[in-house]
């Protein structure tokens, strides 16, 4: 089966690249995250809506 390039060179670059440790990532506490999402979705949207005139009956 023909291949593109020599199989002896496979993985050369990955093998030469120095290993870097992954950074520790922390997520927000769900309570805080839900609160910020609520503020973003609900509170800011209601503040931006124009006030409608009251309906007359």
TrEMBL record:
One of its GO terms (cellular component) is ribosome. Residues 1-57 are annotated as: Disordered. The keyword Lipid biosynthesis does not apply. GO terms for biological process: translation. Keywords: Ribonucleoprotein, Ribosomal protein. It holds the Pfam family Ribosomal_S30. Residues 21-42 have a biased composition (Basic and acidic residues). The keyword Transmembrane does not apply. This is 30S ribosomal protein S30e.
């Amino acid at each position: 089966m023909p291949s593109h390039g020599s199989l002896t060179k496979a993985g050369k670059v990955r093998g030469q690249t120095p290993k870097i440790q992954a950074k520790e990532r922390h997520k927000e506490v769900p309570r805080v995250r839900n609160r910020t999402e609520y503020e973003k979705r609900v509170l800011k949207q209601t503040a931006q809506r124009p006030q409608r005139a009251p309906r007359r009956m």
